[in-house]
Design brief:
The structure is a single chain. This protein has 88 residues and is α+β, with helices and mostly antiparallel strands. Helices cover 45% and strands 20% of the residues. It has a three-stranded mixed β-sheet with strand order 1-3-2. The two termini are 12 Å apart.
Protein backbone atom coordinates (compact mmCIF):
# COMPACT_ATOMS: atom_id res chain seq x y z
CA UNK A 1 0.00 0.00 0.00
CA UNK A 2 1.28 3.42 -0.92
CA UNK A 3 1.50 5.73 2.11
CA UNK A 4 -0.66 8.84 1.93
CA UNK A 5 2.12 11.42 2.25
CA UNK A 6 3.09 14.54 0.36
CA UNK A 7 6.17 12.68 -0.91
CA UNK A 8 3.97 9.98 -2.49
CA UNK A 9 1.86 12.67 -4.13
CA UNK A 10 4.98 14.27 -5.64
CA UNK A 11 6.19 10.91 -6.96
CA UNK A 12 2.84 10.32 -8.67
CA UNK A 13 2.89 13.84 -10.11
CA UNK A 14 6.40 13.25 -11.48
CA UNK A 15 5.23 10.06 -13.24
CA UNK A 16 2.39 11.94 -14.88
CA UNK A 17 4.50 14.93 -15.84
CA UNK A 18 7.08 12.63 -17.45
CA UNK A 19 4.27 11.38 -19.71
CA UNK A 20 3.30 14.94 -20.72
CA UNK A 21 0.31 15.37 -18.41
CA UNK A 22 -0.45 18.84 -17.12
CA UNK A 23 -1.68 18.76 -13.53
CA UNK A 24 -3.88 21.57 -12.28
CA UNK A 25 -5.24 21.98 -8.77
CA UNK A 26 -8.46 23.96 -8.93
CA UNK A 27 -11.08 24.80 -6.35
CA UNK A 28 -14.67 23.82 -6.81
CA UNK A 29 -17.24 21.13 -6.21
CA UNK A 30 -16.24 18.44 -8.70
CA UNK A 31 -14.56 15.05 -9.02
CA UNK A 32 -10.97 14.86 -10.16
CA UNK A 33 -10.40 13.62 -13.67
CA UNK A 34 -8.64 13.88 -17.01
CA UNK A 35 -9.31 15.83 -20.15
CA UNK A 36 -7.65 15.83 -23.55
CA UNK A 37 -7.85 19.24 -25.14
CA UNK A 38 -6.07 19.84 -28.44
CA UNK A 39 -3.77 16.89 -27.71
CA UNK A 40 -2.81 18.27 -24.30
CA UNK A 41 -3.41 15.80 -21.50
CA UNK A 42 -4.76 17.81 -18.59
CA UNK A 43 -5.58 16.53 -15.12
CA UNK A 44 -7.79 18.62 -12.91
CA UNK A 45 -7.60 17.76 -9.22
CA UNK A 46 -9.87 19.28 -6.61
CA UNK A 47 -7.70 21.61 -4.54
CA UNK A 48 -9.82 21.13 -1.42
CA UNK A 49 -9.74 17.31 -1.43
CA UNK A 50 -7.70 15.72 1.30
CA UNK A 51 -4.36 14.09 0.52
CA UNK A 52 -5.78 10.55 0.43
CA UNK A 53 -8.37 11.48 -2.22
CA UNK A 54 -5.75 13.27 -4.34
CA UNK A 55 -3.41 10.26 -4.24
CA UNK A 56 -6.19 7.78 -4.98
CA UNK A 57 -7.37 9.92 -7.91
CA UNK A 58 -3.88 10.02 -9.41
CA UNK A 59 -3.43 6.26 -8.92
CA UNK A 60 -6.72 5.60 -10.67
CA UNK A 61 -5.77 7.87 -13.57
CA UNK A 62 -2.37 6.19 -13.90
CA UNK A 63 -3.99 2.74 -13.90
CA UNK A 64 -6.40 3.79 -16.67
CA UNK A 65 -3.82 5.62 -18.79
CA UNK A 66 -1.57 4.36 -21.54
CA UNK A 67 1.87 5.07 -20.16
CA UNK A 68 5.12 5.09 -22.09
CA UNK A 69 7.92 3.56 -20.05
CA UNK A 70 10.50 4.90 -22.51
CA UNK A 71 10.36 8.40 -21.02
CA UNK A 72 10.68 7.24 -17.41
CA UNK A 73 13.99 6.88 -15.62
CA UNK A 74 14.87 3.70 -13.71
CA UNK A 75 13.45 4.87 -10.38
CA UNK A 76 10.20 5.96 -11.97
CA UNK A 77 9.84 2.67 -13.87
CA UNK A 78 10.41 0.72 -10.65
CA UNK A 79 7.87 2.89 -8.81
CA UNK A 80 5.33 2.44 -11.62
CA UNK A 81 5.81 -1.34 -11.61
CA UNK A 82 5.37 -1.44 -7.84
CA UNK A 83 2.29 0.75 -8.09
CA UNK A 84 0.72 -1.47 -10.77
CA UNK A 85 1.47 -4.58 -8.70
CA UNK A 86 -0.33 -3.07 -5.71
CA UNK A 87 -3.25 -1.66 -7.74
CA UNK A 88 -3.91 -3.95 -10.72
Amino acid sequence: MLPFTQHSLHKLEDLLKANNYIIRYEKGNFRSGTCTLLQNKILVINKFSDLEVKINSLIQIIAESDFSNAVLDDKQQKFLNTLMAINP
